[in-house]
Write a structure and sequence with these properties.
Elements: E1 2-8, H1 16-27, E2 31-37, E3 50-55, E4 58-63, H2 72-80, E5 84-87, H3 92-95, H4 100-103, E6 106-108, H5 128-141, H6 150-153, E7 165-169, H7 181-202, E8 206-210, H8 214-220, H9 232-241, E9 244-247, H10 257-264, E10 268-272, E11 289-291, H11 294-306, H12 308-326, H13 328-339
Parallel strand pairs: 1-2, 4-5, 5-6, 7-8, 7-9, 9-10, 10-11
Antiparallel strand pairs: 1-3, 3-4
Helix pairs in contact: 1-13, 10-12, 12-13
Length: 347
């Protein structure tokens, strides 16, 4: 049994998924965990989105950042603190800018979404400020973060003669992130156009819209869904009932959290072209169809709408991929198997 010490400098929701994976493995009797919160950042992490693990003298870091937003020297310092460095947003091209001895330590971790489990210390609340944040989550998401366990997302593939399509999304405030101002403007324009086209084209077979916010009300009031429908708890029920789910690129070119949710839910996926790589055999035309502009997205959705058997085949492929690569315990066991070949990832 592996003895694992997990450490981090903050309790970011980004870290909930890898911690969930470790805790699931502990429950299976495959490892034992201790946890350290290094709130003073004595280890010098460049940001709070890194989870560290000490295992058999190896330093393993899990970087859950959206992309490569930090300077190369900071990333080099973070990778230099590790023996193995797993990134949620993994790019061979970006990694090649680092010294070879560092880039060779880096591996793709895989898709990401917020998922939790009983005892997940990322989602436990102790202080008054944490209770305030938890109350906001309950109001905003319809449930506490601890509610969103793996089984809340998982579905068995179902055949339907008349598929439906889903796309809920949000707008980012460009003023809040000046460095990404132009990028955010484009993201928002594309999301608004996509929701409008999907709604106009598919009518009652489409479910989705723009999340409520003052910015959304100013820019596209007619596409804004009511606050209750955008709660994550209600959204998950809608996602589980849908057949074809549309995903868009996030900040820093990241693969959106919703894409991971779609895979967990065994859905057919039409997704904006990926800028980052993931582990395993996730293939264009098998697990998803890609697009680079609104018209191409509509064409891809049309093709699936007209061929329900292809929708079902894609659902089955994503169910299999989830079980092999994305379920939180498998995500972590695959990473540990790369570090320790004797750790049986297929168990």
């Amino acid at each position: 049994m592996l003895e694992v010490t997990l450490y981090c400098i903050g309790k970011s929701p980004h870290l909930s998924m890898p911690v969930t994976g470790f805790l699931m493995l502990e429950k299976q009797g495959r490892l034992r965990i201790t946890w350290e919160l290094d709130s003073e950042n004595r280890k010098g992490f460049p940001y709070s989105l890194i989870l560290g693990a000490y295992v058999r003298g190896k330093r393993i870091l899990f970087d859950m950042a959206d992309g490569y937003g930090m300077p190369a020297e900071e990333l080099s310092r973070a990778v230099g603190q590790s023996d193995f460095y797993f990134r949620r947003s993994f790019s061979k091209e970006q990694n090649s800018q680092l010294p070879k001895e560092l880039s060779q330590r880096m591996y793709p971790l895989g898709f990401h979404y917020h998922v939790s489990c009983q005892g997940n210390f990322m989602d436990q609340v102790f202080s008054f400020s944490e209770w305030r944040k938890e109350l906001f989550q309950i109001i905003f998401n319809g449930a506490s973060r601890r509610y969103f366990t793996p089984e809340r997302f998982e579905c068995e593939p179902r055949k339907k003669d008349t598929p439906s399509v889903l796309f809920y999304t949000r707008l980012w405030d460009p003023e809040a992130i000046p460095a990404l101002y132009e990028s955010i403007l484009k993201i928002n324009r594309d999301r608004i156009s996509l929701v409008r086209e999907l709604r106009n084209r598919y009518g009652s077979r489409f479910r989705g819209g723009i999340q409520y916010s003052p910015l959304a009300l100013r820019q596209c009031r007619e596409l804004v869904v009511n606050i209750r429908d955008s709660q994550r708890k209600r959204y998950l029920r809608a996602m589980r009932e849908a057949d074809i789910c549309v995903g868009s690129t996030g900040l820093h070119g990241s693969i959106g959290w919703k894409t991971g949710e779609y895979i967990a839910g065994a859905k057919a996926i039409v997704n904006e072209a990926f800028q980052y790589q993931v582990p395993g055999d996730f293939q264009e035309g098998v697990h998803y169809l890609s697009f680079t502009h609104v018209e191409e997205c509509i064409k891809q959705v049309d093709g699936l709408m007209e061929h329900p058997q292809e929708v079902y085949a894609m659902k089955c492929a994503n169910k299999e991929y989830y079980e092999k690569y994305l379920r939180p315990d498998r995500l972590i066991s695959n990473a540990l198997s790369r570090v320790f070949p004797d750790f049986d990832a297929g168990r």
